[in-house]
Amino acid sequence: MALNLNPNFSEAGKRYFSAHSPGDDFYEMLITAHRDLSDEQSELLNARLILLLANHIGDIGTLREALDIAREGV
Amino acid sequence: MLTTYTYPKFEYRTPPEIASGQTLKVPVVVVGAGPVGLGAALDLQLHDVPVLVLDEDDTVSIGSRGVCYAKRALEILDRYGVGDAVCDKGVSWNVGRTFFREQEVYNFNLVPEPDHHRPGMVNLQQYYLEEYLAARAASRPNIELRWKNKVVSVVQTGKTVTLKVETEDGVYTVETDWLIAADGARSPIRRMLDLEIDGKIFMDRFLIADVVMKADFPAERWFWFDPPFHPGQSVLLHKQTDSVFRIDFQLGWDADPEEERKPENVLPRIKAMLGDQREFELEWVSVYTFQCRRMGSFNHGRVLFVGDAAHQVSPFGARGANSGLQDVDNLGWKLKLVMDGKAPARLLDSYSEERIFAADENLLNSTRSTDFITPKSKVSKTFRNAVLGLAKNHAFGRALVNSGRLSVPAFLTASILNTPDEADDTFAGRMLPGAPMDDAPLRDTGADCWLLDKVGNRFIALYFADDAAVLPAPTLAMLANLSCGGIAVQPLVISARPGRLAGDIPVLEDPRGIAAQRYDAKPGTVYLLRPDQHVAARWRTLDAKKIKAAVARATCNA
Question: Which residues contact residue B545 at a Cβ distance below 8 angstroms, ignoring those fewer than 6 apart?
């Protein structure tokens, strides 16, 4: 499974009239999840989130690809 | 400072009521002659409603202010008779560039979707728009414009709204059946009626400068995140008409607005951004903060709030004048039906409900843009910068960059005025009940025309046929007799083949099938269209009883 680098957000049963809406929905959820947290708590939330999503993806090849791209830009 | 534009001075005339001492009685008063107030007057005159417009000033918007007019606003301005003037004078831009620190991370080309009359947006200084609207309003017999007439008190009793109006020659009284408050973000009418508007102020300040470039500069939109010439903040450069460019600097909350707007402080910022060699002249400077808020209801008895008086959003995404024009587009026909006794006052509640739905969508989008542009926490900024870093090479990252989303009209899919699709009728595409209509190129007796120029201002039954020339007599008779309860429903046939109808039913030809495709129409498909160019209902087969029921529903007469 190759890493999908194209826009890929959607919510079941929801109809979108603008292409940016699902991505904006996700981004807002992400930022809202961090509201009122300290920097340290935010770091922990991010770590937990990455572990949850990585397990969901499961495929080590895909995860390796994502890790490589993420590391490139740091 | 201003050099490219000469402000008109509208003539003040002493109101005759000052000498006579009589109370002026009119059916509708609009307070505020900005784009939205003038739009309200122009909408109502299309319905033959006489309107008195009161404005405390005698010229147009000072400084460019609103800059970007999106497609739906342009289509509404077409109905008001100024769409061509705005599009001819305005500039179109397609290329947008996004920079992060020293680098351009990506650019996009917003190629307009083909086969629409109007583009996604044009840029034009607000004063031009107001000038065109004011000239158009002054030319209409049903509109009286009174400049330098300031409303100083408003009292609503039963079916009458009484205004005291102050002029340089004295005060007079106006009694009106309906008052449209288009008096802006600080709305004195709202304050005088002691009505609330709730929301939040954003703890940030922005410097806007209009500069005249002496040499060619591309007609593009440039957006910088954290640029070297203005570290830690954002900057927007946007082309307007007359070689004027809008530059928008984020300053932060601690900036001193008085200091920041001084030319000796503004000029170095712009020089740092453009590079020293580029010649320019400063035309206008302002420092602003903004709020995101709206009233709980946009109608209060006989007082109707429109535009910034009812709702305010951040400027990212150009949703001020654009949504205000959609307010009056929604309101005009409803007020006319209520005034004529053809619809109950409940229809005006639907104005408030539909436009609150749209205002909330605008608030959501502009708040999201604001949160991306000016992150409120360390982690939020980290995510923002990560998105910008990924955007350079990856499409998903580009889709998440939010430097302002283009203003698009709300799909009023939950409106009580809609008649839902029947279970057996399936439709593809997005022209569902509550949708703002998509345009399409058509032909009218051999000449090119646009669908949106042929609909609006009244209810229309849009009937799709393969060949209009061979429609059976019972179909024609049914189409010709759809009006009910004094509410006219005009039939309009879209024919795949060229042909003329018997009788008085107009026919438009759809030679390339684009209208049929956008409306997912088959021969026999019929759409009921509202006077504000929204879909009210649709069916696969023509049934007069169903159309009449849908008209009743769309006018709160059901």
Answer: none
